[in-house]
Write a structure and sequence with these properties.
About 35% of the residues lie in helices and about 20% in strands. The protein is of the alpha+beta class.
């Protein structure tokens, strides 16, 4: 168990991963189904399951945005590495004996698009299950059904689903084609 908060300035890309903590939404039936599936799989790297936003998650990882961990899958490595969204799914599959080859394929450019699509499909399904309301109980906050926007240009509107609008290039620093 790591109590080291993740930091941006660490050279964690060179640190071996010996244990992963998967933060999952304990109020989501899809998330708990996947948690149960993961713990039954033979693991090359041990996976610990911790409810996102819980007191245990806050104690272990005080530097994380715990509200965000309820909205997107987050996996934390034992040396403070933080994986979100598609990267979190890929590193979780990488930890499983039977799915490591799939994780390597998903880590390629074309595989990453497939992984991103799977994450977006899961988010859409979760949004449909919430019915526009996301009660978070003891963990605080509520998703009120408003549009959820991500920095990478994706947005989720409960009435229309996922849409993509490329980020604006107001600063003039966007790459040209």
């Amino acid at each position: 168990m790591s109590t080291v908060p993740p930091t941006e300035d660490r050279a964690t890309t060179r640190v071996p991963v010996r244990r992963l903590t998967v933060l999952y939404d304990a109020e989501c039936s899809l998330c708990t189904f996947l948690r149960d599936w993961l713990v039954r799989q033979p693991q090359l790297v041990p996976l610990e399951m911790v409810a996102a936003g819980s007191d245990e998650a806050r104690r272990r990882f005080p530097g994380l945005d715990h509200e965000a961990t309820l909205d997107e899958i987050t996996v934390v490595g034992d040396a403070g590495q933080v994986y979100r969204d598609a990267a979190a799914w890929i590193v979780t599959l990488w930890a499983l004996r039977a799915h490591r080859p799939l994780a390597h394929r998903l880590s390629t450019a074309s595989g990453a698009r497939l992984a991103k699509g799977a994450v977006l499909a899961a988010a859409r399904w979760r949004g449909a299950q919430w019915g526009g309301q996301r009660a978070r109980g003891a963990y605080g906050g509520q998703w009120g059904g408003a549009v959820y926007r991500r920095a990478d240009g994706w947005a989720y509107d409960p009435a229309r689903g996922w849409t993509y609008g490329p980020p604006a290039c107001d600063s003039g620093t966007c790459a040209t084609r």
